[in-house]
């Protein structure tokens, strides 16, 4: 029998081999800001556990290397990822001297490369399995539950990022809810304003180019500048419009961040509404007119449902973009996970940066997967209905 | 709208931009009302011209590197030998675009330290995706009859790639580069939070000292650069599209 290599597997096996045998698995530091000392897998874990992890990594890499059935590859990637996730927590406990609260243990480059290699394998398997939208959401939920369980069980408590969290548990959730409120609130405002504006632009051709050009130019203003520029007008509103200050409108803080995110969100919503409505087949509109539908009935009964997947794509772009941009709100006192990122950058405490960056990336990632699945479901539903 | 009006506006914007970065003092009276307590009106901790050129340099380096890597990868996964990577690379591009630029920037700091390097890495990684996506679209939607004709004419794989596929995809690839440059111009300002020398420095100085004039001048220069470059690349794109007989996106 001829042995056949999997091309992607060669890449994965090479990364895994380098990461497991040549790169540090964990970093040990005497306190949170001194430079760390690298520890390999066998140094970071009790001998038996370390050998077990090496064995799992080697077997999973071999399964990736050769052409093997998809189920086997799926199992290999899941087992390897689970082992890595569990054992990095064990390394945290093993490396921290008993009773020492200053020592920090964090995952090092080897750990991240192994995670990357086996996530690549998992992503490849999932892509080849061609999961249905609901299946993809299911995978996301299972992954979220697994990570949640690990967090609750406390097996990661000795890792530095969770020590940073332990010191800031209250503010973490407060900033987190601010972050989500900012991202979702500005999205809601943009949909409420952008949809009618898009419909108007679709109906009144004279407006279209002008509105889209203005919104395009707003997108070119760098986010930190737009956030800063809104401080002055909102400060003026707060002092001169009665009742505005009571509503929480202030020059610095959440208000300018909210308005800036809203302005950035308008273009994708309006542009996709216009494109979606323009893509409604002429025949559908003619049929609706022939049935004696009024303009309003046609809009809600025919045009809008047909344009919906395209509009939803605009909303997906906005949501992912807003979750990322909301980090910058921290620079003008608007709160959000960016607070930890910029504090961490300021103190050169990278665990603090991670505490802000990891939830942001996770949120954006989850939002993208969920909305992509919803878009696919609405798009196929239309196709089935119109077929 | 008259046909010459957009060109005139563009020219006016170019002149205004050059005048502003070379002689910012001329504009002092305009920005004066935005400052309080006799704060400086024009950024005084470095020349605006130098910062603008550094800003452009960082974007240029990142975009050139991103273009080379992205186009090479797109070529690789559209050849028979690399076709196995095509679905995976599609989903990786999708996933990659969900990473916020600030996160990429902040996470690059521990690996390479403060300054220009993390900014270059973030801009490079962030610039890769739109170019790769467009190059992939361009190379996978070539008209079948043209490819057939090229094969029939006895062209080798390399000849087909350099003489047919790449020229025909050029307008779409350029579209990706345009997107990537505009994103990079704005993202480079965030680089100043990790001590890169870009126009973001002016904006951040304004945020820290509550000086609106600083924020405005930094923001406007970046916006003007983005509008002009976007416009310039759009016309290059239309020109190549017309030459290739393909509609630009």
Automatic annotation (TrEMBL), chain A:
InterPro entries: ABC_transp_perm/SBD (IPR051204), MetI-like (IPR000515), MetI-like_sf (IPR035906). PROSITE patterns: ABC_TM1. GO terms for cellular component: plasma membrane. GO terms for biological process: glycine betaine transport; transmembrane transport. Keywords: Membrane, Transmembrane, Transmembrane helix, Transport. It is a multi-pass membrane protein. Pfam families: BPD_transp_1. PANTHER family: GLYCINE BETAINE UPTAKE SYSTEM PERMEASE PROTEIN YEHY, GLYCINE BETAINE/L-PROLINE TRANSPORT SYSTEM PERMEASE PROTEIN PROW. This is ABC transporter permease. It comes from Mesorhizobium kowhaii. The lineage of its organism: Bacteria, Pseudomonadati, Pseudomonadota, Alphaproteobacteria, Hyphomicrobiales.
From TrEMBL, chain B:
The chain crosses the membrane at residues 48-77, 98-115, 121-147, 168-192, 212-233. It comes from the Bacteria. GO terms for cellular component: plasma membrane. It is a multi-pass membrane protein. PROSITE patterns: ABC_TM1. One of its GO terms (biological process) is transmembrane transport. It is found in: Cell membrane. Residues 52-233 form the ABC transmembrane type-1 domain. Keywords: Membrane, Transmembrane, Transmembrane helix, Transport. Belongs to the binding-protein-dependent transport system permease family. This is ABC transporter. It comes from Mesorhizobium kowhaii. The lineage of its organism: Bacteria, Pseudomonadati, Pseudomonadota, Alphaproteobacteria, Hyphomicrobiales.
